[in-house]
Design a protein that fits this description.
The complex is a heterodimer of chains A (307) and B (492). Chain A has a single domain (20-303), classed as TIM Barrel (Alpha-Beta Barrel), CATH 3.20.20. Chain A starts with a strand and ends in a 12-residue tail after the last helix. Chain A is α/β, with parallel strands linked by helices. Helices cover 46% and strands 13% of the residues of chain A. Chain B has 492 residues and is an alpha/beta fold. Chain B has 14 helices and 20 strands. The chains are: A alpha/beta (307), B alpha/beta (492).
Chain lengths: 307, 492
């Protein structure tokens, strides 16, 4: 660490820009999307996808009642079907962490909370860190932070890095997912760079989007991020998790993401410990597919609970 | 009375180890005859003797095909001459275009069946015949249909005329696509055709003949004779052929050129290759890896323009090898009819023997072999996709065209050395350049002696783009406006 003009700067050297070829990465993502996942593989994939969902509600209108409903759904997505696993986590705003923690007590479903002036990240670092500490104290197992895109787009990568590193520290025992908000970074080159920067700063997971900006998660963006995770693993032997979030609405989409992780990173990442899907309506679409596998026909959405 | 709130019962995530189920393309609806002779004068005709063609993934016989004799070749050429004089030379160009458009649309309509048959007879993965061979074959007919009535604008306003009867001999690696590459420009320019498909892969040509019947193409405009190299020799040496187009090995191409010397027949040859795929240290590396993989493992490496020599800048050699090793481990080798198969069956026993011999030479000459750890099916012709490191330009695997999924990895230090190494081959068909720097890409491309150069991509094809070789990779171009020239007399 060093001090310049009263601002603390780490000795961190930003990673070299490494190019991503947009045409080729989109072609590869599309090619992986043509994998044909049938029968037992489909069933297992869908169950796995359920276990990887961060079941999310991030609305100004969220209340304890809404969050309790969501937690019940997360723990037992389809009452009566004990073969369907719980979701990976429930993801809420900080003031609702305590409610979720109580509702999920003993279930193994994690409580995730967004923090650091989510979704814009336009805020003072000290207050961001304070929010993180209090959220972890309230019971959050996982913190989903946003990077400072203002600093990133201004080229102040050291500031982005320092903020992530400080947030990792503030998280204490909680895991940190770093949201790049790829829809605002726009180019694959920048997504790649930001991914490496977040990993170098200590992120446990890198995550595409807040869900508040379009485009949110896409397959090619996810592929670029998975490739950075793979390169980091090749270099250091250390695993980093991945979470695409926003816009993943159908079981078919979820399977495409699973195929991509499976063929880019391999088996070790095929668990909720290393891969999550940030989504809300996705769960019901998967449940509908799982019921279709059981019943042989699609049932109506009216048989599925909200949320 | 209220019960006490219970801790909810939950279910843990399923265990890891996700395996794809077989996803076999159904073959129920495909139909083909047990025996085909030839297709002459718009009709399927009997042959004097027959040979069997197999499915290389199962080694089971699919059907029998005529072994075209000199007399049968003569009948076919006579039919083509009649077709030329009686019908095709009298068909207005705009009407020729309509036939070609109709054929293109019928190829699309029958695409599923044709893709399955191409895979059954050739061994290539269904995803490739479905997503590459069939769409491109239709695209060639669509593209040349558009030229048929605009030929006088193709070469600076020069008057052009058809040549007459074209004798065409095609290889087994892209049976239907090569037939389309040959037939579409020939017909658009007003010629008639006798085509011989490769003896291991004649099936889709027979289905193409059915499409010609369905399109009501006049009799004799396209004729197919089946058979092996002897039939091909009888065709190219037939005195009433005006033009010969051959795609295949350099050895056979050289023999044809000798035989044709002084006969006045026009000739185009699309022969072998040993393409260099050049990876600079500033390339988008993860995408370059995909380009390397598709460059050499697309169609089991049975591609004349395959990127079979990988030239890697020395500073990133280890990084590239690390990634290639990982990517190799994710390739799915097996039943070509499985929609998830990446690498299918080797086309024939003879080709498998050749590839295996070269795998031996690689080790013998001192290179290090890296083969995919995938399980191979118990029957059929399969080989694990392989790359060699520590390859020197003098090694046989670095110099010879293997025509299989075998890649030789070599290094270079500077762009100058990359160009020198890439050009150090008797062949000159294809090359790939991977760099994020556009100026470097164009500077290097302009120095490479290769007919097709891909920038940050490999093995991409388009009907509008000319394809063909330098040096011993042949001469003449197929595709694009340039692809008209071999089938026209330009009168100035």
């Amino acid at each position: 660490m060093s001090v310049h003009n009263g601002v603390v700067r780490s000795a961190y050297h930003p990673p070299a820009w490494k190019a991503v070829d947009a045409v080729a990465v989109e072609a590869r993502a599309a090619a992986l999307g043509t994998r044909s996942i049938k029968k037992a593989a489909k069933l297992q994939g869908l169950l796995l996808a359920v276990s990887m969902i961060d079941l999310t509600t991030l609305e100004g209108s969220d209340t304890p009642g809404k969050v309790r409903d969501l937690c019940a759904k997360a723990m037992r997505p389809l009452p009566g079907r004990s073969d369907i696993p719980s979701t990976g986590a429930v993801c809420v705003y900080p003031p609702l962490v305590a409610v979720a923690k109580e509702a999920l007590a003993g279930s193994g479903v994690k409580v995730a909370a967004v923090a650091t002036y989510f979704p814009s990240g336009q805020g003072d670092l000290a207050m961001k860190l304070e929010e993180v500490r209090r959220t972890v104290e309230a019971g959050a197992d996982e913190i989903d932070m946003v990077i400072d895109r203002r600093a990133f787009l201004m080229g102040d990568y050291a500031k982005v890095f320092d903020e992530i590193a400080a947030t990792v520290e503030a998280c204490g025992p909680a895991h940190l997912k770093v949201i790049l908000e790829t829809g605002e970074l726009q180019t694959y080159d920048k997504v790649r760079f930001a991914s490496q920067l977040a990993i170098d700063a200590g992120a446990h997971f890198i995550k595409t989007s807040t869900g508040k900006v379009q485009p949110a998660a896409t397959l090619p963006v996810t592929l670029v991020m998975l490739e950075v995770i793979r390169e980091h693993y090749f270099k250091t032997g250390k695993m980093v998790g991945m979470k695409p979030a926003g816009g993943i609405r159908t079981a078919k989409d979820a399977l495409k993401y699973l195929v991509m992780v499976n063929e880019t990173l391999g088996d070790a990442w095929m668990s909720p410990d290393w891969f999550r899907l940030g989504a809300s309506v996705l769960l019901n679409d998967i449940l509908m597919q799982l019921e279709k596998e059981r019943l042989g026909a699609y049932d109506s959405l009216r048989y599925h609970t909200l949320g | 009375m209220a019960t006490k709130k219970q801790t909810p019962k939950t279910t843990a995530a399923p265990a890891a180890g996700w395996k794809y189920e077989p996803a076999l393309e159904s073959t129920d609806h495909v139909r083909f005859e047990k025996r085909y002779g030839h297709f002459i004068d718009g009709k399927f005709t009997a042959a004097k003797s027959y040979f069997g063609a197999i499915n290389p993934a199962t080694e089971e016989q699919l059907a029998e095909f005529g072994q075209g004799s000199a007399a049968e070749v003569d009948t076919a050429v006579k039919s083509a001459r009649r077709g030329y004089e009686k019908y095709w030379s009298k068909t207005p160009p705009s009407e020729r275009a309509k036939y070609l458009y109709r054929i293109a649309r019928l190829l699309q309509e029958h695409a599923r069946e044709l893709a399955i048959l191409e895979t059954m007879n050739g061994g290539k993965p269904i995803k490739e015949s479905r997503d590459v061979d069939l769409p491109l074959a239709a695209a060639h007919f669509f593209y040349y249909a558009g030229w048929a009535d605009k030929l006088q604008y193709a070469f600076g306003g020069a008057q052009v005329a058809p040549l007459g009867v074209a004798g065409q001999v095609i290889p087994w690696n892209f049976p239907l696509l090569m037939a389309a590459w040959k037939i579409a420009p020939a017909l658009a320019c007003g010629n008639t055709v006798v085509l011989k498909a490769a003896e291991t892969t004649p099936l889709t040509a027979m289905k193409l003949a059915e499409i010609f019947q369905e399109a009501d193409l006049p009799p004799g405009v396209v004729n197919f004779v089946n058979g092996d190299g002897r039939t091909g020799a009888a065709l190219v040496n037939h005195p009433d052929i005006n033009k010969v187009a051959f795609t295949g090995s350099t050895e056979v191409g050289r023999a044809i050129q000798k035989q044709l010397a002084g006969t006045g027949k026009r000739l185009t040859l699309e022969l072998g290759g040993k393409g260099a795929n050049i990876i600079f240290d500033d390339a988008a590396l993860d995408q370059a890896i995909e380009g390397i993989i598709s460059g050499i493992f697309f169609n089991q490496g049975h591609v004349c323009c395959a990127g079979s020599r990988l030239l890697v800048q020395e500073s990133i050699h280890d990084e590239v090898v690390r990634r290639l090793t990982h990517r190799l481990s994710t390739l799915r080798v097996g039943n070509p009819l499985d929609k998830n198969t990446d690498v299918g069956a080797i086309n024939s026993r003879a080709q498998l023997d050749k590839i295996e011999a070269y795998l031996g030479y690689g080790v013998e000459d001192g290179a290090v072999r890296h083969s995919a750890p995938c399980p191979l099916p118990g029957r059929g012709f399969f080989v694990a996709p392989t790359f060699f490191t520590g390859v020197a330009p003098a090694h046989r695997i670095a110099a010879d065209e293997i025509f299989g999924p075998v890649l030789s990895v070599m290094t270079f230090r500077t762009p100058e050395e990359a160009v020198a190494k890439a050009n150090a081959t008797p062949y000159g068909l294809s090359a790939g350049i991977w760099t994020d720097k556009g100026s470097k890409l164009f500077a290097v491309a302009s120095q490479l002696k290769a007919g097709v150069i891909w920038g940050n991509s490999f093995n991409r094809f388009d009907a509008t783009s000319p394809f063909g070789g330098f040096k011993e990779s042949g001469f003449g171009r197929e595709g694009g406006r340039q692809g008209l020239l071999p089938y026209l007399e330009v009168r100035g």
